[in-house]
Amino acid sequence: PLVPESPFSSKLQMASSFMTAVYVLGLLICGSLNTIMIKVAFSLSAEGSDGQEKDFQKPWFVTFVMFAAMMGSLPFDRALRRCEPCKGKTGAQVPLLPDQSPGGPMQDGATNDTGKSWLNKVLWVSMPAFFDILATGLCSMGFLYIPASVWQLLRGAEMIFAAIFAVVFLKRKLQAFHWLGLTLCFVGIILVGLASVWGESSSSSSSS
After folding, report:
1. Whole-angstrom distance, CA of residue 131 vs CA of residue 129
2. Which of 17, 47, 88, 111, CA to CA, is 20 to 30 A from 23?
3. What is the largest CA-CA distance in the chain?
């Protein structure tokens, strides 16, 4: 027999959908503000020690500030994880890198052939972290040469590279709608890049 759905579970599902929409909206707003503020920072100028006015063009310093600000979310993440047992979510999440550090959950008699030591986990995480910092610094350097709108749209190429890595390294199989989305993304990036190049060339020819 079918068990009728309780009103509490339906309300919980509605609350979960609402919070998902709030998170997505917050992500869009904060991401847009981040792009705008970086471009504004690079448009500022001040008088240097030699008495001449200089533009603020420090992309790697901006990258450092960005990652330092991200570290501020660690206490909130820790607090959320500590609240999970109160919500009955113990054991619901499986870590990507099982813990074999001293005192970790893998030391309580459980065995896992894929478990890694704490040092190995640090090394595994440090590799994508290094490339993330490098990519963010290079993206910040791109702000110095192209408008923020073009930069934000060209950043959509991340999806293309993510799909390539998923197929090559993770052996994922993309569905037809995946390929359709990647094709539209690729065409959009090409059109935005061409529009930017043609717009600069036409403006330079008209000014000359």
Report:
1. 6
2. 88
3. 83
The DSSP bridge partners found for residue 54 are: 46
Alpha-carbon span 74 to 68, nearest angstrom: 11
Give the angle 133-139-143 at the CA atoms, nearest 5°.
140
For 55, phi then psi, to 5°, come to: -80, 150
Token pair listed for 179:
């390929």
- pLDDT (tens place) for every residue of the chain, 208 residues total: 444 555 545 555 665 788 888 888 998 898 888 888 888 888 888 887 788 888 888 888 888 888 888 888 888 877 877 776 665 555 555 555 555 444 444 444 444 445 567 778 778 888 888 988 898 888 888 888 888 878 888 888 888 988 998 899 888 898 999 999 999 999 988 888 888 778 766 666 666 5
Instruction: Name the one residue in this structure whose structure tokens are 């503000």.
Output: 33
Q: What is the pTM of this model?
A: 0.62
Residue 192 CB burial class (10 angstroms; 0-12, 13-18, ≥19): middle
- State how far the Cα of 135 lies from the Cα of 139, in Å rounded to an integer: 6
Which pair of structure tokens corresponds to residue 48?
Answer: 């240097």
Look at the chain and count its residues: 208
Are the CB atoms for 114 and 123 separated by under 8 Å? no
